[in-house]
DNA sequence: TTCCAGGCAATAC
DNA sequence: GTATTGCATGGA
């Protein structure tokens, strides 16, 4: 898929992005008093160079909820929704499920700012049920679900599954999003219509880094793309990665 | 006003 | 398997 001449480029691009933007501190947490860097669209809760997250089961489920809420919307909206929700209910599967079932309108009003409220309410109930069952079946708080099982939950697609596995469970799964496609299509490494799994496989085969660097790479891609790949024509002002264009 | 945002599922070929 | 469309809201 990639000429051997460019074999190391995914690592070189990572190095360049890291040098340019430094450590991103994903995944952000609402109750974490982290730094507030001058990051595009960032508000708070980031923890650069500290990969020891999530620190407890509530934070883990916060990542899982956030992964669904952030589908096709902006992070500031998600942060608002999480703060709204946090005043109403604990971030654990059983509490979320019961609150959503018994207080539908307050629940929807809390997350309304992220859009797609009806769908996302259903999705959040589904994922809550999934983790309730997972814990009951395996009787282990910290059991890690399989990617296949996650994908069987209505509302969890490829990207959300990888987001949950990478940032909540710290599994070495590369997360591909629309920004990833834009940057690496523009640079010439992938094609516009390549499938999610083929792009994921491309990164997992050609980028050598541990799970923390998998997290870092995705965050750096988002940061870079927000600056140069949000307005059409995408990438034309990207001087930072221009040297890696093929 | 139009376009875009850290997608997904259902449907149609 | 791949392409298209509806889903909701807020901000630039």
UniProtKB/TrEMBL annotation:
Domain HhH-GPD residue range list: 69-227
Gene3D superfamilies: Helix-hairpin-Helix base-excision DNA repair enzymes (C-terminal), Hypothetical protein, domain 2
Signal peptide: none
InterPro entries: DNA_glycosylase, HhH-GPD_domain, HhH_base_excis_C
Domain of life: Archaea
Family matches, as SUPFAM superfamilies: DNA-glycosylase
Protein name according to UniProt: Endonuclease III-like protein
Organism: Methanobrevibacter arboriphilus JCM 13429 = DSM 1125
